[in-house]
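Translate structure to sequence.
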């Protein structure tokens, strides 16, 4: 074990012993998960209970995200049987294509609709990478590039490169892209102002081979590298000499998880290392493990993180509603993936143990919340003013924020302090009174008010449900998937889930074609892609004005629209793309190299299936079977004793009276 691994492991072990808590789960339960149909929730989703046994496809996706399919080698006998199976399936596809009408081919109908729409879009490319057109250009570039890979039509490549060229023209001398009118003196890191164009440039380089796009991506990575803190992360924004900004967000020297400032940049550094083998891009990444452990705000057996920090790991806020408490979304969206990536790079179990603690904290909150389901049902039934808001209703275990000892939790958005969901105690007021509203009704009291048809509390009632509850539920599956794989086979199993070949062998390709044919023949997939066409209210491709559907894939996959079997839904366009891709793959028109796009790598959002038509497209800009073969190290010698003393000071500064 390297020095930095020993230091980090010792640091975390000391923390655990001092806090009187062991992160090791010694009672790994067996058997399937238990779903209580009466209340509509799983009884236990703890690390020890995690299992895929007996789950339907929808249940697996909802809990753990998509699967990584690894195809085995075949014997001669198995290969002959598979070849016969594929031939029969292709025969059936030919019949199915004409079941609706003998003169129309289903696949041709969908392809005609998609290509007609794409052809129209080639004439509507925004002229400049500015304001609202900036996002439109990014989405259009991605859509055109993927269309070129599927249809092999060079006019789509040309349209995508036009988008990339207009983005390239807007790149500033230092290598970043402008935020509003701030110009060259300020770089906005969060919200993808630099990180998203990076991937489009890399995609353009992959497909065209033109070095100017690679140099653009390199310049973006280098300017981002200049803003990295000694702790290994990034702030929301960076002010160059003479720069200024009226915008919110932590600045030079700080570290932010908010809006993916650190995560989005971290994965760029890893990609640049793979592209160049230059260790400057990964020199400080190893510092993040110990920094995250130190920045943990949880007490006792609780773990959790705030959204922004000073460089020395003291929590801070960028906006009034981003208070210095642990936020659920940080574990789900940011720290969870970071600990996973670090674990897969250096193999230090301390990362996964810290992740288990954080997940156990959220599972504890979820189980406590289940006691108040009747109250939440009454609140939702009486105080939801509009049918537009049901998706924001609170989901057990997913509040905005919680106290460092997990003795209470609640919503924060617009209230600027936490509205506790549970009755507050004198000890909570003493420890965290400055972070809580003490004059608002808790959930049992709100339930009584709702049943009596009383008016809701003074704060906008929509935010009583936790404004990110549904989004965090979708992201928590990434953490749950990692822990499931770890439970099944340790680091090797987690790495296997995140790895995938860059080119299929003949045996693998044969099996991939068979599974694609199975999806084409699935009536549910076919009906959603074909039968609805462009009916009013549908979101098939003909109903879209631009490429806005590109950004919806990850949300669609884990929401109800991915499971609909009839009627319009936000996923129609994605069923069309998947249907076309699967049809071409089944017929052998997508070759073995194009069908296997490498490992999942540093996924940002949902875990899509490994066969998905879009997949983790950013990682596929430079395909690697294993993206985590990265020699990260710490720059400085860690000092556990000093770190623990600092940790105590941070807690005192943040919460003490």
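Result:
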């Amino acid at each position: 074990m390297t020095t930095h691994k020993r230091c980090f492991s010792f640091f975390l072990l000391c923390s655990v012993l001092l806090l009187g808590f062991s992160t090791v789960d010694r009672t790994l339960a067996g058997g399937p998960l238990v779903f209580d149909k009466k209340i509509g929730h799983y009884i236990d989703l703890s690390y020890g209970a995690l299992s895929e046994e007996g789950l339907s496809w929808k249940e697996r996706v909802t809990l753990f995200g998509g699967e990584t399919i690894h195809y085995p080698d075949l014997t001669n006998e198995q290969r002959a049987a598979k070849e016969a199976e594929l031939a029969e399936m292709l025969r059936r596809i030919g019949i199915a294509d004409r079941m609706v009408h003998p003169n129309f081919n289903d696949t041709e109908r969908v392809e005609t609709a998609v290509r007609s729409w794409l052809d129209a879009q080639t004439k509507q490319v925004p002229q400049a990478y500015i304001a609202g057109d900036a996002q439109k250009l990014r989405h259009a570039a991605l859509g055109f590039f993927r269309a070129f890979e599927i249809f092999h039509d060079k006019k789509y490549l040309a349209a995508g490169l036009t988008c990339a060229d207009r983005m390239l023209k807007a790149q500033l001398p230092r290598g970043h892209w402008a935020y509003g009118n701030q110009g060259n003196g300020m770089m906005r890191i969060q919200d993808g102002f630099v990180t998203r164009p990076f991937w489009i440039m890399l995609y353009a380089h992959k497909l065209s081979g033109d070095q100017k796009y690679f140099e653009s991506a390199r310049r973006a990575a280098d300017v981002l590298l200049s803003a990295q803190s000694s702790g290994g992360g990034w702030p929301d924004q960076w002010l160059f000499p003479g720069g200024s900004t009226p915008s919110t967000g932590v600045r030079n020297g700080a570290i932010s998880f908010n809006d993916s400032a650190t995560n989005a940049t971290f994965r760029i550094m890893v990609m640049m290392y793979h592209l160049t083998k230059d260790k400057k891009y990964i020199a400080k990444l190893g510092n993040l493990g110990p920094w995250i452990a130190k920045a943990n705000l949880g007490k006792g057996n609780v773990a959790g993180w705030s959204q922004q920090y000073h460089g020395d790991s003291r929590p801070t806020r960028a906006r009034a509603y981003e208070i210095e408490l642990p936020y659920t979304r940080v574990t789900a969206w940011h720290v969870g993936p970071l600990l996973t990536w670090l674990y897969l790079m250096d193999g230090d179990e301390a990362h996964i143990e810290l992740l288990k603690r954080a997940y156990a904290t959220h599972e504890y909150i979820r189980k406590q919340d289940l006691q108040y389901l009747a109250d939440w049902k009454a609140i939702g039934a009486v105080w939801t003013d509009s049918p537009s808001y049901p998706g924001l209703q609170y989901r057990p275990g997913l509040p905005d924020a919680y106290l460092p000892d997990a003795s209470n939790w609640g919503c924060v958005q617009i209230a600027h302090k936490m509205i506790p969901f549970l009755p507050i105690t004198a000890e909570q007021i003493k420890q965290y009174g400055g972070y809580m509203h003490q004059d608002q009704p808790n959930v049992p009291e709100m339930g009584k008010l709702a049943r009596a048809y009383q008016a809701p509390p003074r704060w906008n009632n929509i935010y009583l449900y936790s404004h990110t509850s549904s989004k965090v539920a979708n992201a928590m599956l990434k953490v749950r998937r990692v822990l499931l794989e770890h439970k099944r086979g340790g680091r090797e199993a987690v790495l296997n889930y995140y790895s995938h070949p860059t080119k299929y062998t003949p045996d693998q390709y044969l099996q991939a074609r068979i599974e694609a044919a199975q999806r084409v023949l699935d009536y549910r997939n076919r009906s959603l892609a074909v039968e609805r066409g462009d009916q009013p209210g549908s979101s098939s491709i003909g109903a879209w004005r631009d490429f806005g559907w590109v950004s919806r894939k990850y949300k669609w996959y884990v929401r109800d629209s991915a499971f609909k079997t009839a009627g319009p839904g936000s996923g129609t366009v994605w069923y069309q793309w998947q249907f076309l891709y699967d049809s071409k793959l089944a017929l052998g028109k997508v070759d073995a190299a194009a069908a296997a796009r490498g490992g999942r790598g540093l996924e940002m959002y949902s875990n899509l299936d490994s066969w998905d038509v879009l997949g983790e497209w950013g990682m596929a800009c430079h395909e690697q079977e294993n993206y985590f073969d990265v020699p990260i190290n710490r720059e400085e010698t860690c000092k556990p004793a000093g770190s623990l003393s600092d940790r105590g000071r941070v807690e005192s500064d943040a919460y003490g009276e």
